[in-house]
Design goal:
alpha/beta, Rossmann fold, 10 helices, globular
């Protein structure tokens, strides 16, 4: 399984003690060079460097069709008041996922909302960390989803809505 990933997602996973789970769930991840520009902390840069060295992260070549899709994503997010404005780095993650028909990894609420409201145009799965952990549990990479969620929240400070955790969805 392949994915595209944005910087904020990698920033959170750089803090997570079981970040190796990401490589157990996915074969590889597409990123743009903007990811390096946005990564500021030593921990995040080190994590990205490790993923690049392992051959897990691949820089996606920016082509005109992807760039025009990014412009469309940003424009839709600006015009539709139901969607938080999406910045280009997050838009690239979604555009790559659309182009490559892979999963988009992000915690960006604008990307999530746009993919829900415009499914006919941007028909890809958008996963947050919660969905990655659920998948890891399903394929046996983790034994207790609840314990892993607690560890993730503790390490990253990113809290999942309790309703979603309690319902398992």
């Amino acid at each position: 399984m392949l994915c595209s990933v944005d910087t904020c997602f990698l920033i959170d996973w750089a803090k997570y003690r079981r970040r190796d789970i990401l490589q157990g769930v996915f074969e590889a991840a597409y990123v743009t060079r903007d990811v390096l520009d946005e990564a500021r902390t030593e921990a995040t840069l080190s994590y990205i460097g490790d993923l690049l060295a392992d051959g897990f992260l691949a820089f996606y070549p920016l082509m005109e069709d992807v760039t025009s899709l990014v412009r469309e994503i940003v424009a839709v997010s600006i015009r539709d008041p139901r969607i938080r404005t999406i910045d280009p780095p997050e838009a690239f993650a979604l555009a790559i996922a659309v182009k490559e028909e892979c999963i988009c990894l992000t915690e960006n609420k604008g990307v999530l909302r746009l993919s829900e409201l415009y499914r006919d145009r941007f028909n890809v799965e958008v996963w947050r960390s919660y969905e990655v952990l659920k998948r890891a549990y399903k394929i046996g990479l983790i034994e207790s989803l609840e314990e892993e969620i607690r560890a993730y929240e503790e390490d990253t400070g990113h809290l999942f809505p309790r309703r979603r955790v309690e319902k398992g969805g």
